[in-house]
């Protein structure tokens, strides 16, 4: 009896306890807020149990907000943010790969192997800041009256050199299309490197037909004038690619103004452009010191390659000349030409003078730079480079004490030469490489010089490669008006 009453009291206690712990509102049991630790534990237990039962009741139904417009707005915002993140990551990757651009240039497999096989030491990454280059002092004579050509100066290698005037190659004898450089075979090319009495291809080659012209046609009056020049300074502008920059008259001596020919070769398009800019030739054909010589029937579609004719073949354009100076149209001559000849040729006992490049010294670097800047068709550059590698071209090694030149890459915008047989031969050989391959003459300079030297070990060619800072002291540099696009 006592036990029954005890169980009844316990039952009533728990019933009252649960009644105090919860109350019903709108058919659902809601938690009553309780204070103290016991209340917190109790509320937590009830909450978990209620949530579990609620989940069991709802099952896998989608939330009510899933089909509302606000949900689609948030979804579109998330997709836009994801797109921006991916785009930013791609841009950062593209920028970070800029320093490795040269490693991914479209070189052929053979060229890539040849370059990598000669890269003994990796070159450090170059700064993105453009280097500044300045002129340096050149020990020129004080005045033209103080200079005198040394005795026996012209005592260089002697041999007779003639030039092919008309194409006689049987393979092209009936060809209606003449080529300014002719159709030189590889065998004829190889033989032309020997310093001996010979007749070689050197531009101005006429076709078999009497009606064909090689191009680069000049008037008879201009030819007669140029035939009288003993010292010539020349430049050219073709395709309106540059401005006319006159030599600084006050820095040119009266002797040079009377005895040196200053000739600017232009085509008819350039002449019209210059005239519209106020550079109209006078009745004698002069604009300042420049004698304007108009060239008709340009031999090449590539204006750069056409410009190599007066650049390399001054001994053919000025057949009576003893000395000549070539300067690019981007330069303004600020030094007397006779003082230049005295310092770089007479004083150095040289028959050819050209400056080294201001930044690059190896043909490998020049190949990569030409391709990186898209200076010429990449396949044509590869073919030329592989040809030179197969014929013995080696990488420039500045640590070699017997290196024949201080650089294998010239800055070809300024050339001083004596018209000796060896100088004329080198000019013809260098032009033939430009005619056969690409117009990028910096690619063929070292090969031509080294091959000529290798095939004639007992007959030296006295070439003076001077510093680029000296070149900058002789003339003021400008930018070209227009850079023509590279050939396809």
Automatic annotation (TrEMBL):
Keyword Hydrolase recorded: no
Signal peptide (residue range): none
Domain TOD1/MUCI70 glycosyltransferase-like: 161-480
Keyword terms of this UniProt record: Membrane, Transmembrane, Transmembrane helix
Keyword Membrane: yes
A Pfam family per the record: TOD1_MUCI70
InterPro entries membership: TOD1_MUCI70, TOD1_MUCI70_glycTrfase_dom
Region (Disordered) location: 106-132
PANTHER family linked to this entry: ALKALINE CERAMIDASE-RELATED, TRANSMEMBRANE PROTEIN
Stated name of the protein: TOD1/MUCI70 glycosyltransferase-like domain-containing protein
Species assigned in the record: Hibiscus syriacus (Rose of Sharon)
